[in-house]
């Protein structure tokens, strides 16, 4: 067995008790039968997954398994970084972009088998100021939508809440400009940028189709247009990764990107689908920074 001590972090408030507890038991049983120590660790508040991950890694747990959506994964990532423990992800939340990237199973028995196999990869981790991310960071359009999602709608209707927020944003269409500084290039004024550490993006979009978790660079896609019609074309083309050839799109690979506000209103920044604040932000890649269960 590659892992002997496994901490499973999950949100007990997501879904009915039976739907939460039965899969956890079905995951733990074969692992314990194989001689593993399995600790089931419920979260109690926002940010708690970070505290649990850091504490369990410090106690010698060699795999921290985040069960939920990409937000839970991102919280656990903050606690695992720098500890030497591996991070795993078992999909079970509203957004599971990492699961799509790594073809991760939902069934607990299959997830237990993956853990017993113990195959990991050393991957690049992105950092937005002092917040780590594994999938992507975004400034402008996607962060504005993520920041306006109604939490109750998200809890009750899942991904549909993001569609409602997107429609509301398109209706009012307030997309403030910002300045993107790529090393070695003149500054560019943009209104939406995605820095991808992985190919997958929420909703099936491929804004950074050449990105890879093992690539030491971030893939940076900058959109410079102003009109809502341009962004409707960009989004449609991004479903198949063909947006890069459209006017107003710049695509680069970079280790470091700095983004500053160009107007009084500072756009929001999101990482792995969670809003972390407004500009300025510096995005950078940290190659081979994490062991990830694949």
UniProtKB/TrEMBL annotation:
Belongs to the diacylglycerol/lipid kinase family. The lineage of its organism: Bacteria, Bacillati, Bacillota, Clostridia, Eubacteriales. GO terms for biological process: phospholipid biosynthetic process. SMART domains: DAGKc (SM00046). It comes from the Bacteria. GO terms for molecular function: ATP binding; ATP-dependent diacylglycerol kinase activity; metal ion binding. It comes from Symbiobacterium thermophilum. This is DAGKc domain-containing protein. The keyword Chloroplast does not apply. Its cofactor is Mg(2+). It holds the Pfam family DAGK_cat. PANTHER family: LIPID KINASE YEGS (PTHR12358:SF106), SPHINGOSINE KINASE (PTHR12358). GO terms for cellular component: plasma membrane. Keywords: ATP-binding, Kinase, Lipid biosynthesis, Lipid metabolism, Magnesium, Metal-binding, Nucleotide-binding, Phospholipid biosynthesis, Phospholipid metabolism, Transferase. Residues 1-132 form the DAGKc domain.
């Amino acid at each position: 067995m590659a892992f002997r001590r496994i901490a499973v972090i999950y949100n007990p408030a997501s879904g009915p008790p039976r739907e939460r507890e039965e899969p956890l038991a079905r995951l733990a049983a074969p692992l314990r039968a194989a001689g593993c120590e399995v600790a089931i660790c419920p979260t109690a508040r926002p940010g708690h997954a970070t505290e649990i991950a850091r504490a369990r890694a410090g106690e010698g747990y060699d795999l921290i398994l985040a069960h939920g959506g990409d937000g839970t994964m991102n919280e656990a990532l903050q606690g695992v970084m720098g500890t030497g423990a591996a991070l795993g992800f078992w999909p079970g939340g509203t957004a599971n972009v990492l699961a799509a990237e790594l073809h991760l199973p939902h069934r607990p028995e299959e997830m237990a088998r993956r853990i017993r196999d113990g195959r990991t990869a050393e991957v690049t981790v992105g950092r937005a100021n002092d917040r780590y991310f594994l999938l992507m960071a975004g400034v402008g359009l996607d962060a504005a939508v993520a920041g306006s999602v109604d939490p109750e709608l998200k809890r009750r209707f899942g991904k549909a809440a993001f569609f409602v927020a997107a429609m509301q944003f398109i209706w009012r269409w307030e997309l403030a400009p910002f300045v993107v500084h790529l090393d070695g290039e003149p500054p560019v004024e943009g209104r939406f940028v995605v820095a991808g550490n992985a190919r997958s993006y929420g909703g099936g979009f491929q804004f950074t189709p050449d990105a890879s978790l093992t690539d030491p660079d971030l893939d940076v896609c900058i959109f410079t247009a102003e009109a809502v019609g341009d962004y409707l074309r960009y989004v449609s083309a991004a479903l198949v990764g063909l947006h890069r050839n459209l006017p107003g799109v710049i695509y680069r690979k970079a280790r470091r990107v700095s983004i500053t506000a160009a107007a009084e209103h500072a756009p929001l920044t999101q990482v792995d689908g969670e809003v972390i604040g407004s500009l300025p932000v510096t995005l950078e890649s940290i190659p081979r920074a994490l062991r990830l269960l694949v």
